[in-house]
From TrEMBL:
Higher taxonomy: Bacteria, Pseudomonadati, Pseudomonadota, Betaproteobacteria, Neisseriales
Pfam family, one: HTH_8
Protein's name according to its UniProt entry: Sigma-54-dependent Fis family transcriptional regulator
Highest taxon, organism lineage: Bacteria
Keyword entries, A-Z: ATP-binding, DNA-binding, Nucleotide-binding, Phosphoprotein, Transcription, Transcription regulation
Molecular functions per Gene Ontology: ATP binding; sequence-specific DNA binding
Keyword DNA-binding: yes
Residues the record lists as 4-aspartylphosphate modifications: 59
GO biological process, one term: regulation of DNA-templated transcription
PROSITE patterns referenced in this protein's UniProt entry, alphabetically: RESPONSE_REGULATORY, SIGMA54_INTERACT_2, SIGMA54_INTERACT_3, SIGMA54_INTERACT_4
All residue ranges annotated as the Sigma-54 factor interaction domain in the record: 142-371
Statement: the UniProt record of this protein carries the keyword Transferase: no
Length: 452
């Protein structure tokens, strides 16, 4: 726990109800912390301005104003003080508003003392020198300077300072997972794990044990106790990719775990407290999934506290050349090669291309071009842009000889997979459906055929 000049951290508790104030005070004192009290918004502002506060916990509804005023005061003055709000049961709207205004977390009444302790411990880590790593330019691993990407990066910076759930939207390959990793790596959770989960790739019958873990003997074949994703991400960030693919039964269990901040392993009788930050992503329209009854509205509201939109590459055309250079430099060094130049015709075609698969597609195009080029320069033909999407067309690869048979079959399979991916704008779940194979099988085939 952080200490200033070896003194215990000082917490400001803001509440106009003496009973609750006292309960919180006792809990914090037992944790070895110093506590100051304020009985309303005005007193809180004055105490904050006097300095020396490391963390602020404020009630939402008070006689002389709202906890939001306290949050906004801290933000407006630029104080580096984490603030959490305590809201009335069921008033999630208030909590969301506070998170948007800069609160790092919230507690719902009746306040569970265990949750209070977890929140305080996690907040005070914000103060640790290692945890409060300021964002440096080296952390900004998104290449690009267009207004679209700058806007996303600014929001990522703000989100890294909060504990609020984040919902990342954007087309396939637009950098949603990269954004989630960046939020985690700039947050005070960066010394703890980042656990990415592809919700569409887990067989439904294994979901519960994969997410929550299982005790020995919980099911046939469970010969040891196992942790799930939640336990693995404890203290860190759980990234739920393709969250729209979660079956409804699992959505109920996930909502419960998020709300209660507790999970129970399969076959266990007791629950354990879990502290994870949830970031989720999908390329689907989650609001539409709610309308169609495929996604629970209550879970949607829980996850969609703050939305981060990752722009498609075609909306940041001015960045295409810079991103292409950055990717080429990385790919060339991975292959132990010198970085080849991008010929003017190739650059021109890339700038005009629509990139249905976004940066991932650009990566694939360049990886293939690197293998095809003469080592010095990448020309238009090396890019093999698909005919329908590029202005400058090149003939698609001919199927060629039928022998050896395996090579011929691999080429046919690759063509079919690429066509399905192209049709679905690189949505692997949909592509697997078109191809009549499971998501896993498609992933395996893509790996085998080096379609990354
Ligand atoms: N601006 C950028 N600069 C450099 N690399 C980027 C940029 N945006 C994305 N990438 C890279 O593009 C690839 C695809 O990104 P990522 O996997 O984050 O996309 P995604 O939206 O999560 O994809 P999917 O929807 O398929 O899960 C990754 O290798 C990522 O590092």
């Amino acid at each position: 726990m952080s200490k200033r000049n070896n003194k215990p951290p000082r917490i400001l508790v803001v509440d106009d109800e003496p009973d609750l104030r006292e309960l919180v005070e006792l809990t914090l004192l037992k944790m070895g912390l110093d506590v100051d009290m304020a009985d309303g918004v005005a007193a809180a502002k004055a105490r904050l301005d006097a300095g020396g506060i490391d963390l602020c916990l404020t009630d939402m509804r008070m006689g002389d104003g709202s906890g939001l005023d306290v949050v906004r005061h801290i933000e407006a003055r630029g104080y580096d003080i984490p603030v959490a709000v305590i809201t009335a049961y069921g008033s999630l709207d208030n909590a969301v508003e506070a998170l948007k205004a800069g609160a790092f977390d919230y507690l719902a009444k009746p306040v569970s003392l265990e949750q209070l302790r977890t929140l305080v411990r996690s907040a005070l880590e914000l103060d640790k020198p290692a945890g409060s790593k300021p964002a440096t330019s080296a952390d900004r691993t998104f290449i690009g300077d267009s207004p679209a990407i700058r806007h996303a990066l600014q929001l990522i910076d703000r989100l890294a300072k909060s504990q609020a759930p984040v919902y990342i939207t954007g087309e396939s390959g637009s950098g949603k997972e990269r954004a989630a990793r960046l939020i985690h790596s700039q947050s005070n959770r960066n010394s703890q794990p980042f656990v990415p989960v592809n919700c569409g790739a887990i067989p439904e019958n294994l979901m519960e044990s994969e997410f929550f873990g299982s005790k020995k003997g919980a099911y046939t074949g469970a010969d040891t106790e196992r942790d799930g994703f939640f336990q693995a991400a404890h203290g860190g960030t759980l990234f739920l990719d393709e969250v729209a693919d979660l079956p409804l039964a699992m959505q109920v269990k996930l909502l419960r775990a998020i709300q209660e901040k507790h999970v129970r392993k399969l076959g266990d009788t007791k629950e354990t407290a879990i502290d994870v930050r949830i970031i989720c992503a999908t390329h689907q329209n989650l609001a539409k999934c709610v309308d169609e009854g495929r996604f629970r509205q209550d879970l949607y509201y829980r996850l969609n506290v703050i939305e981060l939109k990752m722009p498609p590459l075609r909306e940041m055309r001015e960045d295409v050349a810079g991103i292409a250079h950055g990717l080429l430099a990385r790919l060339a060094s991975q292959n132990g090669m010198d970085e080849p130049k991008l010929g003017p015709d190739a650059l021109q075609a890339l700038a005009a291309y629509d990139f249905p698969g976004n940066v991932r597609e650009l990566e694939n195009i360049l990886e293939r071009a690197l293998a095809l080029c003469d080592g010095k320069q990448i020309r238009l033909a090396d890019l093999q842009l698909s005919r329908s999407d590029s202005d400058e067309s090149t003939p698609s690869a001919a199927i060629g000889d039928k022998y050896p048979l395996q090579d011929y079959l691999d080429r046919m399979e690759k063509e079919a997979i690429l066509e399905a991916l192209d049709k679905t704008r690189f949505n692997r779940t949909q592509a697997a459906k078109i191809l009549g194979v499971t998501f896993r099988s498609l992933r395996y085939r893509m790996e085998r055929l080096s379609i990354s």
